Amino acid sequence: MKNFVKYQLPPILWIVLIYFLSSLSNFHVRFKIPPGTDKFVHAIIYFVLCWLTRRAFFVQERFSSIRRYALMGAFIFSVVYGALDEYHQGFVPGRTVDAYDLMADAGGALLFVAVYWLLQRRNGSAKQLSES
User: Fold this and answer.
1) CA–CA separation, 79 vs 50, rounded Å?
2) Domains in the chain: how many in total?
């Protein structure tokens, strides 16, 4: 149970937060996001999603292949969730489906992968990202 709360629950809560925010009509107006910065916000949100998902995949003990491919799985999961989120927004009044938002989501997840690889290469391991 301790592992679930520490590793699996955070990405679940992050996904719920993303879904909740995506369900708000006129999100940009409500939160006064300056024009042109929304893609940056998307990238940050999906960077965090990829990080949290990678941690959850890596520490689970049931499926060794998920653990072995945790980084790739987290990236794929984040991009697929970004696509589903964009699709979901098509049904929310005041929101639209935007391919550029999906690209920003994927870019944020890809940025996490790049940072992870760079840290792993530099330090020989990426413990600081997988354990924190």
Assistant:
1) 9
2) 1
